Every structure is written in structure tokens, then in C-alpha cells.
Predict the structure.
Amino acid sequence: MNSTNSTNITDTYRVAGGSGRHLLILLFLVLLAYSNTFHASWHLDDITNILDNKNVHVSTLSFSDWAKSIRAPFTDPNNPKPGLSGLYRPVVMLTFALNWYLGKADVVGYHLFNIAIHCVSSWLLYLTILNLLKTPNLLGRYQGAELRIAFLATAIWALHPIQTQAITYIVQRMASLAALFYLSAIFLFVKGRKTQAPVPRGCFWGGCLLCFLLAVGSKQNAVTLPAALLLIEIIFYRKPDFWRQGKTKWTVVGGVVGLVILYVLLLFYWQTDPMSTLIAGYEKRPFTMIERLLTETRVSLFYLYQLLYPVPGQFSILHDFSLSTSLLEPWTTSVAIAAILMLILFAVYNIRRKPLLSFAVFFFFLGHSVESTIFPLELVFEHRNYLPSLFLFLPVASGMTSLVDTFRDKSTLVYRMLMGLVPVLVIALGLGCYTRNMVWATEKTLWQDAMQKAPSLARPYQNVAMALEREQNLEIAIKLYRKALDLQDPEPKLSRFISYGNMGNIYKKRKEYDKAVQFLTAATRIETGPYIHRVRYNLVLCLLNTHQETEALKHLDFLLSGQNTNSRFLTAKGFILFQQGKTDPALQYFRAALQQKPYSKDLLLSMAMALSSEDYHERSAALLEDAVNRYPDNLVVYLALLQHSLMIEDKIRANQYMSQITSRFKLSDIEQYLADRARGWRYVNDTLVPVEDAMVIPPLVRYLKQKAGDLSRYPDPKGQTLIQPYKG
């Protein structure tokens, strides 16, 4: 008895010591592989769901702020209106709010949080595999090799390059956090299954239920957890003849029926009308539900290929994947369906002979059963493998360990080669992960990588062009947008809209308004895309600078049709009417705009000038005072103040404002404004100009000439002088 106890204690210390070392090594390797991601930039959905999502911008400890963050919906950048209301992914949104509270928009904190999730998930995966290898149906099968199998399987998973999209892409915390709670639930279930005492078992299973809810609150694909637990029960705990036992049979049947009911209830919880939502989702996609189901068979095998053959060249944010329109188009669709069926049948047949392999196959396809089936999501995203791949490398690690043990005594050379292969494999995966993370450094590097790997697709070219726009490299950006027009895209109309609209915006920035009108008009004719109103409004501004007020009014009427009462559109309509001498209707539009956005620069200036023209000078002065307080660096604001003072014949204030203009603004800026207005532009310095040039320009020019000596105190970087007086 004493000898047995001594042996058990020794084994416990050996396992604990080995586990501790393995966990430290795993932690070190993961941190090393992700050490170059702390300053990786924001990408794609990060912008709409974190940077632009005011609900998660928590700055106080008030309960209402945090409650608002929990109810913040996930937003698709291709559809700015939230598709889901209420509690959508509350757990993840709460963590984003916590990050924002601690560090605002500093990416470092977000990356540290994501890496911490990955480290904890790796630790839990290791412990879960250890426990699964000691379940009744595997007891004694891997005696003495459990630690090595668990370590190798976890290391391959944790360092695999495919996981970078779920970790380094900040918003995909949704995938990694859901997997963390999902794995925690499995671990607690296994611990509870192992425990005989009722109270500890109840605690373990209660924790399992809590983790299930947290997982679903992180991402909805976690609803598959009950099916995963049923799979674990069957493979690791039940005897081969369990199905013949009447009580067990009905328990399993009841469990399956319960799962179906649970999934339906959860579906109705998130959507009041799930079928309508499903159908509406496909209306926005360039494929049907059948086409998606057929295509996803090929995508699933592609994921397996990526996972089992992790060559760096096949990982990308975007993949050129053709649609499967029938079983034979392309012919690989039928092959993919047959291959998946064979894998599943093989797993069923070998459920007792090769339980780890069967479990890995079942778990992989179960993990993809939500995102790779009927729901109208995009076809391919690598982060979707974070959860399904958890146990995929378990049979790989088991096979390699068995092979090493087989040749331990048979062949020293082969044994040494196999022993050397293990660290080489781990190091290679780590290097692949580190290299892949380099691509995530900026938006530009991410999409340049996609350009190389999917050269026939338009989207990478467009996103690189957007990055170049931000760098003010406008000429090359235009070339890339033009090239994108000739390339493929799953949504060709949307792609052309983006290229035309962005080229139009570039020409608008460059003040080439005729070209801007050409491309923005082409974009509006396509009439699609999430930012169609923004593009049309930019077209209005460019039309004003090409003397096409009537056409601009047509577009504004279109924008204001229906229930659209955007303040900018109302202000622009009022501005044009005021310029046409229709002050009363202009004021009606200004008052409507005032109800929505009372502090808009264009609204304050235009309404002030309109009121001043109707002799409401006090109200006009109040609006202008508000404008100068809010926009003290805007030249048009001071010109409006100058005009107002001239209208009420206040020469002292007029001289004060002209003095402020010469002291606040460089001579080159004033000169540029005069040149722009001489061209007849109504939109200057990002401002609608309601000022009457004939009233303000002559006295300003005379003042500048008189103060020429004083102006030398304000050196102009261009070394220019006011060469030409304004000729208006």
C-alpha cells in the first residue's frame, strides 16, 4: 500500500513538473512568435467596430456607459447600419470597452489582450488534451506519452500561421475569445466527468454552462458546444455497445432533439424573424444559399490543406475562390463533397480503433458547421479555423510520438532524425507565424501581400490605393483604382462604385473638379455601395465648383427624398437657394438642419449670412460668434464676420477682423483663397462660402496693401506677395 502511494505521488510530481515546463515553453514560443505584433495597425472591421463605435468608447466607471458597451452591435463596414440589435456579441464588446477605457485607441493594449487570450487558450488546450488522454476509453493506450502528445499537439496549434488572423486582427477577438470559453467549457466538462463527488461535479458542470454562455456571447458559432460535449461523451467515455442500451439510446436521442431546439431558440433570440433575415442576407450577396453550400465544401478542404501544409504563400486576407454553381461546375465540387463524406465515414468506422483521429475529423467539421453552411457570410476567412482546428493536430502529435517510440530501440539513426524533426517542425511553424505577422503591420503591407497572392482580384488593389491616398501618394492610387476596374470581384458593381467614387474624391482633393464630377457621376449611376450618399454629396460640392447649381440641386433633392433629413444635405440645399436669392425657403432648410446638427460650420455661416441679409443682425452675430469660437482657424469665418460688420457699418469691428485675418493667416493662404474665388468656386477650404465677394474683398485688399509693412512679420513659406488684387 505504501509502495503504491509512493508511486502515485511520484507520478503526480512527474506530470506536474513536466506540465509546468511545457507550459512555460509554450508561453515563451507564443510570445516570441507574436512579439512583432504589438504595434500592428487597425484593419478593416476594427475601424467600424472599435474606432468608430461610440458605444465602446467608455471613459468613466458609470454603469450606464458599460451597459451601453455590452449592447453595442457588431457592424459590417459594407453595411454601416447594424444588422442586429440588442445583445449580439456582448462579451467581446465589453472587452473592447475595457481596452478603450485603459488606453483609448492605442493598439498595444488590444494586441496584448489578444495575445493573452491565445496564451490562456494554449494552456487550456494542453490541459484538456492531457485529461482526454486519460479518459476511460483511452486509459493506458498512451501510457507515458501523454505529456509529449499534449505538448506537441498544442505547440503546432498555437504556433500555426493560420491563427494570426484570429489574434493579430484585433476585432477577431470574437473568434479567439469564443474559442477560449468553448475550450474552458470542454475542460470543465471533462473534469466534472472525472469527479465522483456530487458538489465538485456540480461546480464543474455549472462552470461549463457559464463558459458556454460566455462563448455564445462572444461569437454565435459556439452554439455547437453541446454537440461537441456529446461527441466527447461518445468517443471518450461510452462503450462500443452503448447504443444497444435502451436508456442510453433515448438519452442520446433526447440530447440531439434538445440541441436542435436549443439552436432554433438561439436563432430566434438573435433575430425576431430568422428566415426573413437569412433570405435578406443573400439578397446582398453575389451567390445563392445553394452556391454557398456547394462552394464551402471546397473551402473546407482548402482549410484542411492550409492547416496540414502550412506554406507561407497560401495564407492571405483574401483568396481568389470561384463559386460552385453546380456539382460539376467546377468539377472539384463533386470531388470535395465525396472527400468530405469519405472523411466522415472513415471517422465513423474508426471511432474505436483510432479515436483521436475520428475526434479530430468530427470536431473540425462540427466547428465549421455554422460559418460554412447556410448563413450568408463571406466565403473564405482564415480566422474561422481557430476553433475547429483545436484538436486537429492531436492525431498528428500522437502519430509522431508513436513513430519516435517505435524506432527508439530499432534504429538509432531514424530515432535521432525523428527526434530532431520535432523541434524543427515547431521552430518552422514559429518562424512562419512570425513572418505572417509581419504582413499585418499596416493596411498597406496587408493588402500588398494580397495583391501578390490574388492578382486577379480588384479589392487588394483598391485597398492599397486607399493606403496610398492616406500617404498623399495620389497619382499611384489613381493608377491602382483604374487597374481595379478591369479586375474581378465577387460584387462587380460595388467594386466599380468604389473605384469610381474614390478616384472622384482624389480629383476633388486635387481641386480638379471637372474630372471629379466625371468619376463621381459614374459612381452615382451604379447606385450601390454603403457610402452612396457620401459620394453623391461630394458630387454636389464639385458641381458647385463647376457652375452646375441646377444639377447639384437635383442630386440634393434625390438625397433628401424619402425620410432622409441629413443636416449636411439640408444645409447645402439652403445654401444654393440662398445663393439664388431665395432667402425664405433657404432659411426653412437651415432651421430644419439646425434641429439635427446645430454646430455645423457650413450651417452656422450660411444661416448667419441669410439672417443678416434679412436684417436679423443680432441673431446673425450670435451665430457668427459661435462659429468663430468653434472654428477659429477658418478664413471664411472671419470673412463672414467682416461682411457682417460692413453690413451694419461698424468700421471699428471691420478693421479688427481684417487685422485678425492678417495676423492669423499666412499671405499665401489668403492669396490662394482669392484665386479660388476668382475661379467662381463656391466650396473653398472645405467650406461652403456664403460671403459676398464684392463686399469683403475690395476693403480686405486695400487693408493688405496699407499694412504691407506689417505683413513682413508673418513670413510666407512660398516667399510670395499679393501680386494681383482681386478682380471679382
Summary: The longest strand covers residues 683-684. The chain has two domains: 2-240+285-430, 565-728. The domain at 565-728 is CATH 1.25.40.10 (Serine Threonine Protein Phosphatase 5, Tetratricopeptide repeat). The CA atoms of residues 159 and 430 lie 5 Å apart.
